[in-house]
Amino acid sequence: MGQPPPDGEIAAESSAPSLSETYRPAARRIITATLAGNDAWNKMEQLCDGIGHRLTGSPQLQRAVEWAVEVLKADGHENVRAEPVMVRKWVRGAESLEMCAPRAERLVVLGLGGSVGTPDQGLTAPALVVADEDELAARAADAEGKIVVFNHPMPAYDPDQGSGYGTAVHYRHHGARLAAASGAVACLVRSVTANSLRSPHTGAMSYRDADRKIPAAAISVEDAEMLARLARRGQTPVLTLKMGARDEGMVQSANVVAELRGRERPEEIVVISGHFDSWDAGQGAHDDAGGCVMAMEAINVLRRLKMTPRRTIRVVLWTNEENGLTGAKQYVEDHATELAQHVAAIESDSGVFQPQGFSIDCRDAEKLARAEAQMNDILELLRSVGDMRIRSGWSGADVGQMKPADVVLMGLDVEGSRYFDYHHSHADTLDKVNPADLSRCVATMAVVAYVLADMPRPIGE
């Protein structure tokens, strides 16, 4: 056991200024400049209105990659590049859903990502409406040859408990496998949202180890409730589902990377990021054009202010987060030799709303505890932007791939009451984004990235 440091060293260490004291002038400068004016909204318009949705493997995603490289180079950043990633290309095709009995009505439908399609003529079958997998198990004998409908509600948003998304999404992801095991011919799931204007919400699904692959799609909350009411009255809805979904194999995509190189320790890296791909409903404005633009504009603000930190701030725009995470996995493989020098990685993938702090995670528990204390101090710099707090746990799907390397991982937390109203739906469009919230998010990302990249010792040490 080593000897304790001399009393003088303890006194010097305890009297050293805090991070918030040290970086208050820099933070004030960044926040003032960002809120006075920035290029984030212009970038959002170019990306959302000019390019639109960015489904993995689509021409729109490829155009977005090219656009980002052009813009990041024009903004003067270093080492701008597209790093190749192979991704699976899933194509939606034409789709429709009709109720044939007890009356005729066209229902709204949105196929789930990764689903197989139906025969060209579609498939027609009675619906079996269940609330959850327990009810399906109890009624398994009734499921043979049916279209199983999971009418499992997502709870209303709670300020303390959050959205309840993690529980409700189980049926979107695994419903087809559960239904197929009971002999169903197709699976429909109630959209994963607590608020609906008859808008279906898509997302990824998985067959995992299913013996049979059956078509899977999302329906609106309203249509799921109607089918459930009919069933409770003793009527059996008969549905015709048509889906042209297909898998076109592996194609090339790319992560986009750009840097603000550090002035003293450029080999040490702080990643700030969002994911570039989106579903093909809406424009992917909140999910996740906003996260990408926040990262792009954060280093743009710092560069314009000529504020170069000790370490490198690296922007990464991930490809294929929505249906595979191959962009993040490829990054970890490509950058394996430098992961030990990634001191922190931040992801924004919760929409563009009032920033409220950060989630934080790290495999090393002691490092995590030290990082939490440091981040609580750093967030004091953002009181003029809003009340901020740190919570332990989830960081982000993409940056989470770096967890085995003991990188300190963070996710930008924002006010979450409306995000899942738009998430993965046709309503995720630019008009739902508040420009002032976008600027506050850019300021928050820029301040935290700058301090993490400039503080004397890496966070968590």
Quick structural summary:
This protein is an alpha/beta fold and about 450 residues long.
CATH fold title of the largest domain: Aminopeptidase
- Please report the number of helical segments: 12
Distance between the termini: 20 Å
Radius of gyration: 24 Å
Major beta sheet summary: 8 strands, mixed
What is the number of independent domains? 2
- The proportion of strand residues reads 15-25%
Counting DSSP E segments of at least 2 residues, the number of strands comes to 16
Taking pLDDT < 50 over at least 5 consecutive residues as the criterion, the unreliable ranges are: 1-13
Name the overall outline.
Answer: elongated
CATH superfamily of the largest domain: Zn peptidases
The strands making up the biggest β-sheet line up spatially as 1-10-12-11-13-16-14-15
**What fraction, in percent, of the residue positions are helical?**
25-40%
Looking at the overall shape, the CATH architecture of the largest domain is 3-Layer(aba) Sandwich
Structure, explained:
- There is one protein chain.
- The chain is of the alpha/beta class.
- It is built from twelve helices and 16 strands.
- It has two domains: 279 residues, 3-Layer(aba) Sandwich (Aminopeptidase), CATH 3.40.630; 152 residues, Glucose Oxidase, domain 1.
- The protein is 34% helix and 24% strand.
- Helix 2 packs antiparallel against helix 12, helix 3 runs antiparallel to helix 8 and helix 8 crosses helix 12.
- The longest helix is centred in the middle third of the chain and has 20 residues.
- The N terminus is likely disordered.
